[in-house]
Design a protein that fits this description.
mainly alpha; Recoverin, domain 1; two-stranded antiparallel sheet; 3% strand; globular; binds calcium ion; calcium; Sarcoplasmic calcium-binding protein-like; EF-hand-dom_pair; calcium ion binding
Length: 131
């Protein structure tokens, strides 16, 4: 759990806090920072590297290079997703349908979540959005 929180804190500093190291951001700060996804071509690859680290250090608990449904369930549990809500996300990320999530499938969905404005399965990366 400490590693997860360390990564979340690094991500906050990298993606949101900016050089001023803000501890709070406004809605417009969020919009401005998020727009880097579309303004800076290398930013998506930077995001991919972050999610490789999330995969290796957090999600892939046994380090075998793939995520089982249980591992992904535990990963989403870190952000409060109930286990019963995980199957649609797992199936969306498992694009080759082999019953496992590879590192590439994981990173593709993660980057797609932040970088793709089309309605794709990547929208389920962090689980379902609840109203
Ligand atoms: Ca694994
Ligand atoms: Ca797969």
């Amino acid at each position: 759990m400490e590693t997860y929180m360390d990564l979340v804190n690094y991500a906050w500093d990298y993606f949101w806090a900016g050089p001023e190291k803000k501890v709070n951001v406004t809605f417009w700060d969020c919009v401005h920072n998020y727009a880097r996804t579309f303004r800076q071509p290398a930013f998506q690859e930077e995001q991919r590297k972050w999610f490789y680290v999330y995969f290796d250090k957090i999600a892939d608990k046994n380090g075998d290079g793939i995520l089982t449904r249980k591992e992904y369930e535990e990963f989403l549990g870190l952000v409060g997703v109930h286990p019963l809500s995980v199957p649609p996300s797992f199936e969306a990320l498992d694009t080759d349908g082999d019953g496992q999530i590879s590192k590439e499938e994981f990173a593709n969905a993660a980057v797609g979540f932040f970088c793709c404005t089309a309605d794709t399965p990547a929208k389920l990366f962090w689980g379902p959005f609840l109203a």
